[in-house]
Design brief:
- There is one protein chain.
- This protein has 239 residues and is of the alpha/beta class.
- 46% of the residues lie in helices and 14% in strands.
- The chain is built from ten helices and ten strands.
- Strands 2-3-4-7-8 form a five-stranded parallel β-sheet. A three-stranded parallel β-sheet has the order 1-10-9. A two-stranded antiparallel ribbon has the order 5-6.
- The longest helix is centred in the last third of the chain and has 18 residues, at 221-238.
- The protein is globular.
């Protein structure tokens, strides 16, 4: 079974309250920590990787992002999915090949750029081209940015999800959807549903699973908590 098939299988047959929990490593060392802890797969956060490389979120050059993903994938024996933002303007074939060269088994792709939502039908068409180029070699997680771009109507997210799933997305990710609308999203969306969690805050992954999450990711939250802990250590050294 290929890495992508292993990763895809982790998303299916899950029961409520038992979502797939995917920590987000930002470098090879953090990836090893999560893999050694027993997590069956990992999902890189673009903002966390950007911080580790000294860039603001969204400002990482594509070459550096793919190189970082490659270092993370090499460091562990579990499948690694990569957040590659909006695809960096790459043609679908090149995007797929660069992900595969980096050792990724899947990717997270956003439907907004520079803070503006893309036309959902045009984005779905592009996702279909990515799927055609990848075949079954990559797990496609289609991020839906309606809630983070000020569109609070759940139907807008559900409509985009339907287009993206029809285009070949394996999973959809309505990032920052309010907890209260998760059951509505679950009932209106086919296939796996990715939900964003804040480590140490809000509902636990198990609780999010009970509300409809198939998988739970943390964005840059784990990297920021680690950075906070390091600040405390640094402050103690100064004292």
């Amino acid at each position: 079974m290929s890495g992508a098939d292993r990763f895809r299988a982790l998303h299916h047959g899950r029961v409520p309250g038992d979502p797939l929990v995917l920590p987000g490593p930002w470098d090879a060392a953090s990836a090893r920590v999560f893999a050694d802890a027993g997590f069956p797969a990992l999902a890189t956060p673009s903002a966390g990787v950007a911080a580790s490389l000294g860039y603001a979120d969204g400002a990482t050059p594509a070459d550096e992002m793919f190189a970082a993903v490659a270092r993370i994938a090499r460091a562990v024996d579990v499948p690694v999915s990569a957040d590659v933002e909006d695809g960096y303007g790459l043609a679908p074939e090149e995007l797929v090949e660069r992900l595969l060269e980096a050792g990724a088994v899947g990717c997270n792709l956003e439907d907004s750029v520079d803070g503006v939502l893309k036309d959902p039908r045009e984005h779905a068409e592009w996702l279909g081209e990515v799927r055609a180029a990848a075949g079954d070699r990559l797990f496609l997680n289609a991020r839906i940015d309606t809630f983070v771009r000020g569109v609070d109507d759940p139907d807008a997210a559900i409509g985009r999800a339907a287009l993206y799933v029809a285009a070949g997305a394996d999973c959809v990710y309505p990032i920052d959807a309010p907890v209260g609308v998760l059951p509505l999203l679950r009932s209106g969306i086919q296939g796996p549903l990715n939900v964003h969690a804040l480590p140490g805050e809000g509902p636990s992954p198990a609780q999010l699973g009970g509300l409809g999450a198939t998988r739970v990711t943390f964005g840059p939250g784990l990297q920021r908590r680690a950075q906070g802990a390091l600040r405390e250590i640094a402050a103690d050294l100064v004292d």
